[in-house]
Amino acid sequence: MNYLCPLWLAVVFIFASMQVSAEEQTLRVLAWPGYADNDLVAEFEKRFKVDVEVTLVGSDEVLRSKMAENHGGNFDVIAANTAEIHYYVDQGLLQPLRPDRITNTAYQLPRFRDYSRLPDILIDGKVYAIPYAWSDMGLIYDRKQFPNPPDSITSMWDPRFQGRVLAFNTSNHNFSLASLALGGDPFRISADDFPRVSEQLIALRRNVLTFYSLPEEAAELFRTHAVALLFANYGRQQLRQLHDAGADVGYVIPREGALAWLDCWAISRSARDAALAHAWINYMLEPQVSRALSERQGLSNTLDEPKDVNPSSPLIWLRPVEDDQRRAVLWQRIVSGERAPLKETR
Q1: pLDDT by residue (tens digit) across 147-195?
Q2: Residue of 62, 107, 183, 289 with fewest CB within 10 Å of its CB?
Q3: E strand intervals along the chain
């Protein structure tokens, strides 16, 4: 027995070590639909002899809730727009990157390698994110219902299209759109202007058919409810879906400018294997991988100039807002149908 007991303990120790090793060889990815397709994931798994566990999200709010769990410890690498990257850095949920480990940035267009000109990539002199995909958030319109393309964001409030407008179910973007429609700053709404912007969103709620969450949902609603106008939160990805479905639609950047997002890859502060996370980001920037995103999803990658985008179109890159919690609370009151969402408890 004196010999068997140590032997048994040794077997238990080896088995436990194998379990820990297996866990460390699973890369946990938090991303948007289309960013980690099965075949691309399978190639990464084969090349690095690891497993990849992908969790998909459909909104910034869901992304935040996922990252809030276990203080970001449930994920190793995430995809998020620049405004969200800044938020996660402020919350201590991301770690600085090692750009020297991501050599495929050499394939990117110069403007996506100049981090000083991009919002919220460099924070306190450290690189926290690598650009991956981007899109403007324009307006998709039914050509049969618009003899001329709409030229203003205020078209979403046009009473002629009541019940035939689709908007996205999100707080930050909608407050930004409402402020933009009123001629204000989309990311810095003053306390005095909040009532007026909130009333503008109440008017939008009354004019829309509904607020959608996923692009597939929007495409189905567009086709089955004779929708005239759609705010394309997912940008040209949604235009591609509607074209593929046979819809006769056009796409415009309104004269006020279009909100635009730049999605990046970043690494969680609690990543189990930072080297493997860096390898994932580097893999995502391989030409065949980045171009697959554009070919399949209709999104712009950071390697190629998009053919159907006017470089002079006024784009408004997303930035952190003045008070996202206030926006979220007010938005829930507005979207739920509450008539007087302005009586805030602060």
Answers
A1: 999 999 999 999 999 999 999 999 999 999 999 999 999 999 999 999 9
A2: 183
A3: 26-31, 51-56, 77-81, 122-123, 126-127, 130-136, 139-142, 165-168, 210-212, 229-231, 249-252, 258-267, 300-301, 315-317
Q: How many whole angstroms separate alpha carbon 76 and alpha carbon 31?
A: 11
- The 10 Å Cβ neighbour count of residue 194 is 19
Phi then psi for residue 98, to 5 deg, are -110, 90
Q: What is the DSSP letter of 10?
A: H
pTM: 0.75
Pairing outcome for strands 258-267 and 315-317? parallel
Q: Which residues lie below 8 Å from residue 36, measured CB to CB, with a gap of 6+?
A: 29, 52, 54, 56
Helices (H), 252-301: 274-284, 287-297
Which tokens in the block code for residue 174? 């909608």
Q: Give 77-91 pLDDT, tens digit per residue.
A: 999 999 899 999 999
**Residue showing tokens 């991009």:** 118
User: Which residue type occupies 154?
Assistant: T
**Distance (Å, rounded) from C-alpha 153 to C-alpha 19?**
55
- Comparing CA positions, the residue from 168, 175, 146, 170 lying closest to residue 158 is 146
The helix, strand and coil proportions of the chain, stated in percent and rounded to the nearest 5, come to 45, 20, 35
Give the pLDDT of residue 262: 95
* Cα 169–Cα 320–Cα 193 angle in degrees, nearest 5: 75
Domains and CATH numbers, the chain: 4-134+260-308 (3.40.190.10), 136-259+319-335 (3.40.190.10)
Among the listed residues 100, 61, 56, 58, the one whose alpha carbon sits nearest the alpha carbon of residue 78 = 56
Read off the tokens for 142.
């039914």
Helix (H) or strand (E) holding 51: strand 51-56
Name which of 179, 80, 167 is nearest 132 in CA terms.
80
Burial of 156 (0-12, 13-18, 19+ CB in 10 A): buried
153 residue type, one letter: I
